[in-house]
Amino acid sequence: CSSREALRALVDGRAHVAGVHLRDQKSGEYNQASIRRALGQRRSIVVNFARWELGLATAAGNPLAIRGFADLGRPGLKIVNREDGSGARSVLDHALDEAGIQRDRIAGYQFEAGGHLEVAAVIAAGLADVGVTIRLGADAYGLDFIPQQDERYDLVMLEHEADSTPIKAMLDALNSRRFAREISQLCAYDTAQMGQVVSI
What we know:
Shape: globular
Oligomer: single chain
CATH architecture of the largest domain: 3-Layer(aba) Sandwich
CATH superfamily of the largest domain: Periplasmic binding protein-like II
CATH topology of the largest domain: D-Maltodextrin-Binding Protein, domain 2
């Protein structure tokens, strides 16, 4: 689910851990402002999972010669979007605002996919020309990928859950160099800081 929905699930007790990658556009900091807004006075522990490249995926060979977000304002170009509350949607909306592109003038802006792989699948099927996803999604479907920025993906848990058996097991796994290597090789993520506590 989206980062914001994951935080809601954590607050509602429907999840033990929330995966989050939401950049605060004012400070440039990842996740902290969104976590504070969602959790209020609840104390949390934030642990890094990985960093990944977020960018634009297009059909193989990039037939429309898309270079960046400014190209999304071209007439006739159709995008596939992510749901509101996702990190990818937040990045797209900020980039469109920066470029002065009105969202309601972009074909496909309301056409939403539920995850990075789903965005890539829609493009691979020819139902959209471009979408925001991670490199892994584009690679999985043989698409071209135009990197736009690095993202930090963190895991958030409530502090009072930290001593529970499942959370301890997860933290042990995150601090395993072998696990970090496997994730890095499998997904091409930067796992150099995996398991490090970002904030308490």
